[in-house]
Amino acid sequence: MAKESGVDFASTVFDIAGDRMPRGSWWWWFWLFFIDNPDDPKRPRQLMILWSTKNERSINCNGIDMKLSSLSDRSRMDGAVAAWYYDGRKMHHNLLLDPCVLEVSESRLSTKSSTPTAFDVSGRKSTVSIGDRFSLVAEFDGGDEFLEPEKSYNSFVGSLGYSLLRVNRFRLSGKIDGRQVNGTAYFQRVFVNAPSVGWYWGTFHFPGGEVLKYYNIRALGRSFKKEIKFFDGESLHDIGDIKVRRVDGEYPDFIVSGESRMERVEFTVSAYSHSSWTFKKNAFGIIPNKLVYNEYPARITDIKVTDKGTGKVRTTADFGVGVGNAEHTTGMLL
Question: Are residues 211 and 189 in the same domain?
């Protein structure tokens, strides 16, 4: 995988004019907002919004058929906007799920869907609005390379692969239903030109500024890419050999562990809500296939980081409780 740090987010996030878009490839701009919930701190509010276009003649998402035409005009593309919102008590599935035109400029992505949406960037500040209900401002945390914008590229076979623009943590402020809110946010812009297979993924923010991420792509019973990255506020723990085990209940737990020669990281991700998207299409016009994309607002309450050299152990008592989102995706979309 190739990586590029020191990226100018404002000039890059909507710069798609030169990217190829072969049949089957997929773009999306994806935000997760982790919002304080004073009424029940153990269940922080969460909002996800995604703007997406896929070079397909047609695809079905949660029962809605979407037909896409030419993507030659990168300033006005057929696509969709989707969102869910967990308000601290109830999950609002399909808060948005609208086929629409994505209008893209140098500093803005917007839709005139049933509920208008916009994503604006100015310098180190991003603003996301959904109708009159949501107006959220994300600003870079900074202070470490891990918290700055990063681009990465991964190639598989021939031209197949993906590219990713990511910011692991923003400070968040704004208003929901006219009331002031605060929290943190995560963003990624993804371009995928490859079959979409199952994965485990999670991103979590801790009270002191720490960030934990894990990722495990799976297909045909094998793991093809797996990692834990934990920024502890001072240094980055990067572990490439991990295990993820799902334990079902009302909402699942994900037991995650990994170790290198020098350290071991283990934690439990406990979900407290759930939303999902089911994508269906006929590959090559005749082969039915689908991808079920599950998202779980969740907390990490029992992390343990062990330094094998010194024997030093740090736990939740040192880091606090991590708040974030876990994904478990099954199936395959060709």
Answer: no
Same domain membership, residue 156 and residue 287: no
Both 131 and 243 in one domain: the answer is no
**Token pair of 156, please?**
């598989």
State pTM to two decimals: 0.96
Instruction: Return the ∠ at Cα 36 (arms to 32 and 37), rounded to 5°.
Output: 120
Domain count across the chain: 2
**pLDDT-derived band at 24, boundaries 50, 70, 90:** confident
> Going by DSSP bridges, is the β-strand pair 211-219/198-205 parallel, antiparallel, or unpaired?
antiparallel
Could you list the residue range(s) of the whole structural domain that residue 74 is in?
Answer: 1-194
pLDDT band of 123, cuts 50, 70, 90: very high
Mean pLDDT of 54-69: 86
**Residue 204 near residue 296 (C-beta atoms within 8 A):** no
Q: Name the domain boundary from 138, 159, 194.
A: 194
Write phi, then psi, for 132 (nearest 5 degrees). Answer: -95, -5
108 and 64 within one domain: yes
- Residue type at position 48: M
**Average pLDDT along the chain:** 93
CA distances from 46 to 39, 66, 138 (A): 14, 26, 14
Average pLDDT on 74-98 reads 96
Print the SS3 string covering 79-101: EEEEEEEECCCCEEEEEEEEEEE
β partners of residue 254: 246, 269
List all residues 6 or more positions away from 143 whose beta carbon is below 8 Å from its beta carbon: 209
Q: Strand pairing partners for 322?
A: 300
